[in-house]
Amino acid sequence: MILFKIPGEPVAKARPRITGKGIAYTPKKTVNYENLVKEIYMITYGQTMLEGELAIDLKLYFQIPKSASKKKKDDMEAGEIRPTKKPDLDNVLKAITDSLNGIAYGDDSQIVRATVEKYYSQVPRAEVMINQINKGETA
Q: How many structural domains comprise the chain?
């Protein structure tokens, strides 16, 4: 099992931008986040490469808005109020899984099951857990 935390507000994978000259590039915020994910994985697990079918579980924690009332903040911290704002969870999943290609696994096509959940917290972060699925085990 692989388990690590990415500090800071989770970032969605942004679509490539096109310059006036028709050159496509990935936005800097996406590149920086993907590099952070790679760096944390490499520091934590080095060259550990998972094989076969994989399951990934992400828990995304977003900053509690300063404007929220004390009651609302308490409900957010307790998980009773969950974020329904951007970013979309599938785009954050894509940013994290794409950044781990060739590092944690050969390709993110190995992922056969994904669970992604959004929460509020005073400590924004993404918690990543990746498991190999054994033969005969259901995803």
A: 1
pLDDT in tens, 12-65: 998 878 888 888 878 899 999 999 999 999 999 998 999 999 999 999 999 999
Give the span between the Cα atoms of 127 and 62, in whole angstroms.
Answer: 12
The residues facing 60 across adjacent strands are: 118, 126
Going by C-alpha positions, the residue among 59, 2, 8 that lies closest to residue 35 is 8
C-beta separation of 133 from 119 below 8 A: no
Q: What three-state secondary structure class fits 91?
A: helix
Summarize pLDDT for 68-106 with one digit per residue, the tens: 999 999 999 999 999 999 999 999 999 999 999 999 999
| 12 domain-assigned | yes
**What is the distance between the alpha carbons of residues 94 and 109, in angstroms, rounded to a whole number?**
11
Q: What is the CATH number of the domain that holds 48?
A: 3.30.1330.70
How far apart CA 33 and CA 125 sit, in angstroms, is 12
Domain limits for position 70: 2-132
Cβ atoms of 112 and 133 within 8 Å: the answer is yes
